[in-house]
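Sequence in, structure out.
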Amino acid sequence: MTMIVNGAGGRLGAEVLKAAKAAGYAVVAVDKSGVSGEATTYSSLAEYAGAADVVIDFSSHLATRELLDYVTARRLPLVLATTGQTDEERQMIYDAAKVIPLFFSANMSYGVALLLSLVKRAAALLPEDDVEIVETHHNHKADAPSGTAIMIANAISDTLGGRPLVKGRNGIARREKGEIGISSIRIGSVVGKHEVMFSDGVETLTVTHEAHDKALFAAGAVRAATFLLGKEAGLYDMQSLVEATHA
């Protein structure tokens, strides 16, 4: 299998190349500004028309249109690991998934996928509890809340039939019944930590996932790429992978 890694010059892209090579896959690197030491690097996807079985993208949501035009034209499965997409870009993703198998997740960690399963189960069993999410990341992370925190909040909201999300609190901000709060912390070199708290006022249940090394996201992306091979067109995520693994 040959994997194209878009955004290969970045730290995560470089980790994906290493993980893919360690798994025995051939790799092709694409990056607009960086050069990879792991593989021949092309400055754009359009420059590469050779053999490929799947594309893994760790570049930027700004590349969404170019990326989707490329994979749909070549009918290549795509693992999309960027966050921060606009509504328009998300619609492009949904449209592309009608043509190709597309794996789209704000977090490529298998552990986070298991956390999602746990918190959805907890929400179903504790529908009256207050729910708060606290996410902590390194001080260079640009977006807040994290895409993973929003993904978790949406999963809980969907489980409970739709709940409002409150992203941060400031000033007079009394908690309203049923809302799901999200708080963000940016400090030091923390790779990523997500805490989900359920409380009825008498006791609190906290489910936590903490990433210690960004290499885990690369391993998850390679695992997702392998999962996509042979799949029909459609939108897939880490929950799809978890369900298939434990079917």
